[in-house]
Design a protein that fits this description.
Chain lengths: ~550, ~230
């Protein structure tokens, strides 16, 4: 392997250097003139300033971590933390970790976890300074060092949602840092000097290193492969991978890698990374955390879209959008909010995919799509420059944030713009697809037609029209995934209902029509009636059972 | 129907390269040389069915992406030229996604992009004209060192023609594949086309005829109804 442990250690060493070099900047001002007594008083005041409710929360969180009460931890994390954040820290950061230390016996591991929450809160509600970004990175290094470089597995266990959020946030902050450093005109000279000095902080290699190390440590690839083959995953899990913490972190890192690969424009590698993750399996591990589930399908759909596999993209988006709309009520508000935001983006991408390669989708999804993006879809299908503008608009609203893996040349005026570059490259392909709807709308009306006639309709040279017909033929074949664990594989299938052949200057056209779909309609309504009957019967039973009891109670049941 | 083979391991890929691609070794900059050598072997092989390994070339582009100081424009040019004659049209764009505006400004690479545009738009006559433009001084360098480039391309273009036409003037085919009458007649013989004076008849790939796609009901859709029927 690529000297993973060695790298991580070396890397932690570097961090100390980094920490020292910029630690001087702020602490001198704060601490320089104070003596010990004043410091102590300041610390006490700091602890005192923490509201009672928050102090009690931190106490519980600490105690639950110590005694490994997963259910309580999940409650603390998923319900209480966001509530307290809203109530006390809507516009400020959580209490300084140094003050919290006094409440939790200065417990190192707890403070690392606390700091992760503390920085995450700053990222989501405030504007993190460059120093905060450095510090947060340093804290992630501490956390992953603890998990990856201890002699044996750590005893720590955390709820799945929390683990997912850690991996997801780690990547988000990496992306945010890359964007931050590339906005040269907004950076001060001091900041640029600091960035130049600390080029290894949030470096792409270090982030990938963490994700790959988590995957390797947990043997998650081997575990998933064993599971697929019906073997016992526990046998190949190893000392670390047998623990839920390592297993889930490894798994989430795979999903995280997919995101990183997409941010770098490497769509094949993104899909290759998922080779052991069974898409479409209702019991797959990614279904345990809604955000993870949504993330998998968003990036898979996006990667397919960029590869020009519009039918596969459509399928991925429709699958997850159906899931989100059906399970909305079973999830926490916070998770639903996050998922809804991603869902909106996916509807936009779906609108693009479906306009470029029309296909029948689920009725509910179709109805929403028409209501929200009907106008845009219509404009795309009309073709021309306007269509490209509409596609760009939808794309920029919905695409992931792209990054350049290396620091920009801080002394140059120009920086790379990966966002615009990826869009332009995508449009090279999408633009050709626009030939299809235009030609199709004319060809549909005839069974035979001369080239000269069609070229006068389209106001196009006959020679160019013949070229366009060849483009149409090519664009109507698409690679489509046909199942299996390899998402890259697929078969070449026709993606249109309208075919033709050219004999000299004459076009012979044939259309295949989709028959009306009665069965689907009857099945759905039969099921609906059945559900209704069952509900009515249950009520009747309940009323009958309560017949002997006082009236008031029976009414409540009814 | 043929399977998209860009992602399947080609028979010509050595074990050493395969291991590298399926491992974190793919990020190790010292492997750049290995992948560059492998690309050179792909370029030297004129057999268009076995001489392209997209995954290996994408891995090489990724190493350049991470280590821009190692980036070699001539290698990128050859990777793109190989993707241009790949039987899978999407290959070219997948390579492009890993590049930057900066790289695309290079004269040879910009020219390849323009050639690709003519190909995508099926403007084959324009393609050959631009490719062998006597005014262009850099003409040779764009596909320099790619064995079998012209013939690889002709194969692609012929595939487009046979997919679209059933009857086509001989003269048009000549222009589209940039060959003289004699050579096209030879091609016709090899492929079993009928030549009737100035017109070539191509064999039917699939008959074009109208049909009705009827709905198919899967058993899974009926499970709920059947289990309810069972209760009665």
């Amino acid at each position: 392997m690529y000297q993973v442990t060695y790298e991580v250690e070396e890397f932690a060493g570097n961090i100390d250097v980094v920490a020292d070099s910029y630690a001087n900047v702020d602490e001198i001002e704060d601490v320089g003139d104070l003596d010990d007594e004043e410091l102590l008083m300041q610390a006490q005041a700091g602890v005192q300033s923490i509201p009672e409710q928050v102090r009690s929360f931190l106490g519980h969180l600490y105690a639950n971590l110590q005694s490994d009460k997963q259910r309580d931890l999940a409650y603390n994390y998923e319900i209480q933390f966001p509530k307290l954040s809203d109530k006390y820290y809507a516009k400020s950061s959580w209490p300084e970790p140094q003050y919290v230390a006094a409440l939790v016996n200065d417990d190192g591991l707890f403070l690392i976890l606390y700091r992760e929450l503390y920085y995450r809160h700053i990222y989501s509600r405030l504007h993190p300074s460059l120093e905060t970004r450095f510090r947060s990175f340093e804290n992630y290094c501490d956390l992953f060092n603890h998990i990856l470089n201890s002699d044996g597995p750590t005893d720590l266990e955390l709820p799945n949602q929390w683990l997912w959020d850690i991996v997801d946030e780690f990547i988000y902050q990496f992306q945010s840092f890359c964007t931050h450093r590339s906005r040269l005109n907004k950076r001060s000279e001091e900041e640029i000097a600091l960035l130049k000095e600390n080029s290894q902080v949030w470096s792409t290699y270090s982030v990938l290193n963490v994700l790959y190390s988590l995957i390797q440590k947990s043997n998650i690839g081997e575990q998933l492969r064993a599971q697929q083959q019906g073997a016992d995953a526990a046998k190949v899990a190893g000392e670390f991978g047998a623990r839920p913490l390592y297993k889930m972190l490894g798994y989430f890192s795979i999903v995280g890698l997919v995101r990183v690969h997409c941010m770098l424009g490497d769509y094949t590698l993104a899909l290759q990374t998922l080779e052991n993750v069974e898409l479409g399996n209702a019991r797959a591990l990614y279904t345990r955390v809604m955000a993870c589930h949504v993330s998998v399908y968003y990036y898979v759909g996006f990667a397919y879209l960029m590869m020009g596999r519009y039918a596969d993209a459509t399928q991925a988006f429709v699958h997850i959008l159906t899931f989100v709309s059906r399970t909305r009520q079973y999830h926490q508000r916070q998770q639903v909010d996050a998922a809804s935001k991603k869902a909106e983006q996916m509807y936009a991408l779906l609108a693009v995919a479906v306009s470029l390669s029309p296909v029948r989708v689920d009725e509910n999804i179709h109805a929403y799509l028409r209501e929200k993006y009907g106008d845009q879809q219509h404009r795309i299908q009309r073709g021309g420059e306007e269509a490209l503008d509409v596609i760009s608009e939808l794309y920029l609203f919905a695409c992931p944030k792209f990054i350049t893996p290396n620091p920009p040349n801080y002394d140059a005026a120009e920086v790379a713009e990966p966002q615009a570059y990826q869009l332009r490259t995508f449009l090279r392909e999408a633009r050709l697809q626009l030939v299809v709807p235009t030609l199709r709308s004319f060809l549909k009306l005839y069974t035979t037609m001369g080239i000269d006639r069609l070229s006068s309709f389209l106001e196009m040279e006959p020679a160019e029209l013949k070229n366009q017909l060849m483009v149409y033929k090519q664009r109507c074949r698409q690679v489509k995934w046909v199942g299996g664990s390899d998402l890259l594989s697929g078969e070449l299938v026709p993606s249109t209902d309208l075919d033709f052949a050219l004999q000299m200057d004459m076009i012979f056209i044939a259309e295949s029509r989709v028959g009306r779909r009665y069965a689907d309609w009857f099945i759905r309504n039969a099921n609906k009636v059945h559900d209704l009957v069952v509900t009515l019967e249950n009520r009747q039973d309940a009323v009958a059972a309560n017949a002997g009891k006082p009236l008031a109670e029976a009414e409540v049941v009814a | 129907m043929s399977v998209s083979s860009s992602f399947v391991r080609p028979t010509t890929r050595p074990d050493e390269i395969h291991r590298l691609l399926t491992d974190v070794e793919r990020y190790n900059p010292s492997n750049t040389v290995l992948l560059e050598d492998y690309l050179a072997r792909q370029c030297a092989n004129p057999d268009s069915t076995s001489n392209h390994d997209l995954m290996a070339n994408l891995a090489l582009l990724k190493l350049y992406q991470f280590n821009p100081e190692m980036l070699d424009l001539d290698v990128i040019r050859r990777i793109l030229a190989k993707a241009l004659i790949s039987a899978i049209p999407a290959d070219f764009n997948l390579c492009l996604y890993l590049l930057t505006d900066e790289v695309c400004k290079d004269a040879s690479i910009a020219k390849l992009l323009a050639l690709r545009e003519s190909l995508e738009r099926a403007q084959f006559v324009k393609f050959w004209r631009d490719m062998y433009d006597p005014e262009d001084e850099e003409e040779e360098s764009v596909v320099d060192g790619i064995a079998g480039f012209d013939n690889g391309l002709r194969k692609l273009i012929l595939a487009e023609i046979t997919a679209t036409y059933q009857k086509i003037p001989l003269r048009d085919v000549q222009d589209m594949v940039n060959l003289d009458e004699e050579a096209v007649l030879r091609l016709a013989k090899e492929n079993g086309w009928t030549v009737d004076g100035p017109v070539i008849s191509l064999p039917l790939k699939a008959e074009v005829k109208a049909s009705v796609i009827s709905e198919s009901v899967k058993f899974e859709q009926l499970t709920k109804m059947l289990s309810a029927a069972n209760d009665i």
